[in-house]
Amino acid sequence: MRKINRTARATGVDFPEIAELFRMPHGSSYQKILAAGTAFYENSQTHEAILVDYKLPTNFRAVLQTLVNDLKAATDVKNEAKGSQIGATANIAAEMKEMSDALRRLRGIVPNVYEDNPTKFGEWTSVSHIPGAARKKGGGEPKS
Q1: In the chain, N or C terminus with fewer CB closer than 10 Å?
Q2: SS3 for 10?
């Protein structure tokens, strides 16, 4: 796009309307670049011969269209991945809640099952501890 912009500015001496059609976007968001690339492509159709006379390659429109399509595809992949990440984060929270609920149930059951076996109960106590597990405000689970 910068080559097209530079070339269009050069044509401004003789064709000021062309220079105005190929201004670089302010900012660098994907949306602005895609919009400008699409506009450059569409505007270049009418002025292709003049831009080629100013020594842009004869295939510059095809190259530009490929670049715009590639950026659009990459942006779509990025947005899809971001959506997947948000979904995965939500799933982690749901899985943690399910695991926490299961552990809470077991903390009520296991002492009843192994109350006469201190070795097994000690093993359970050791492996059932989750470091840094979040607890509800107000003291967490009631003691037996």
Answers
A1: C
A2: helix
53 in any annotated domain: yes
Structural domains in the chain (count): 1
Share of the chain above pLDDT 70, in %: 91
* pTM passes above 0.85: no
Provide the 8-state DSSP code for 116: T
Q: Is residue 137 part of a domain?
A: no
Predicted pLDDT of residue 44 = 96
CB within 8 Å of 75: residues ≥ 6 apart = 30, 34
**Tell me: the pLDDT tens digits for 75-103?**
888 888 877 777 777 778 788 888 888 88
Give residue for tokens 């077991």. 106
Judge whether 1 and 40 are in contact, CB under 8 Å: yes
Q: Within a domain: residue 123? A: yes
Burial of 114 (0-12, 13-18, 19+ CB in 10 A): middle
